[in-house]
Design brief:
Elements: H1 3-22, E1 29-33, H2 38-43, E2 45-51, E3 69-75, E4 78-84, H3 95-98, H4 100-108, E5 112-121, E6 131-140, H5 167-180, E7 184-192, H6 200-208, E8 213-215, H7 219-227, E9 231-241, H8 252-276
Parallel strand pairs: 1-4, 1-5, 5-9, 6-7, 7-8
Antiparallel strand pairs: 2-3, 3-4, 5-8, 6-9
């Protein structure tokens, strides 16, 4: 069996297991919930949840702050499927497996991806707890989830990445933030492999490359989403200041606490975005 057929078979098996467990769901929106996103999950009207362990092909999350469930319900009046917990290269998974759930959510019917994450902030004008709207990204993971045989039924061999984060969705998020009185930064994200945080010299390099935030996720999922024709909105929370001339030792408990403190604003913003989001024409089932 070729690698391409194996990938296609894995998607078919995952879809069959999900349909058998939760029925004929057809979400409009896919959401990826990162570290400290429990409140956002609670904001959605969850009708069904499915542990990743029950879905063929899904990796298992080894990070304590990631629940490891696929949620089905509504948020902002829209049908959503949400990953409560994501996967990372530092857990030992290649990027094709990291981004596999995005392809599954696309095949379920979602044509829009909302991606969230906890990140380090390298812009000296920003503070921990700030929300950042992603406008672009840099992939320094040393890998790409599209390496290998292309799944032509999902997307082209050489997908365009001139607009990884949808400009119309960015505008809608900025308008929503203004209405809600939520400060919203806008910048460039860089993904690195981890799991260690960066040295002072590495932060200087990443900042010189043009990045405002740094993290160990998000980019692989966005690449696969864009390959499959999904529009993407990314909003991240700055959980720690990564300023090389004033760098302090990172404390994971402080990072998680900062993410959870900022989460109500993130939940309110994404809910408002979905409430205002124009519906896209959908092909018949």
């Amino acid at each position: 069996m070729t690698e391409e057929r194996s990938a296609g078979a894995a998607l078919t098996e995952a879809m069959a297991a999900i349909r058998a467990a939760v029925g004929p769901v057809r979400p409009e929106i896919a959401v990826i919930l990162g570290t400290g996103r429990g409140r956002l999950a609670e904001s959605s009207a969850v009708r069904r949840s499915l542990p990743y362990a029950e879905i063929p092909g899904f990796p298992l999350s080894t990070v304590e702050t990631h629940e490891g469930r696929l949620l089905f319900g509504t948020l902002g009046g829209r049908e959503v499927v949400a990953m409560q917990g994501r996967f990372h290269r530092y857990e030992g998974y290649d990027l094709r497996r990291v981004a596999f759930p995005v392809r599954v959510m696309r095949l379920l019917g979602a044509d829009t991806l909302l991606v969230t994450a906890a990140c380090g902030g390298m812009n000296p004008l920003w503070q921990p707890g700030d929300l950042v709207l992603l406008d672009d990204h840099i992939n320094l993971l040393g890998d790409n989830p599209l390496v290998g045989p292309n799944l032509d039924e999902l997307g082209p061999r050489f997908p365009d990445m001139s607009e990884p984060y949808d400009r119309a969705l960015q505008q809608l998020a900025q308008q929503s933030a203004l209405e809600l009185g939520i400060p919203l930064r806008r910048g460039v994200h860089v993904a690195v492999a981890g799991p260690n945080l960066e040295t002072r010299a590495e932060y200087r390099m990443l900042r010189a490359l043009g990045a405002d935030t740094v993290g160990m996720s998000t980019v692989p999922e966005v690449i696969v989403a864009r390959h499959a024709g999904m529009r993407v909105l990314g909003v991240v929370i700055i959980t720690d200041a990564c300023l090389p001339d004033a760098l302090e030792p990172a404390d994971i408990n402080t990072i998680i606490r900062t993410a959870r403190t900022a989460e109500p604003r993130l939940a309110a913003l994404l809910t408002r975005v979905l409430e205002r989001l124009p519906e896209r024409p959908r092909p018949a089932s």
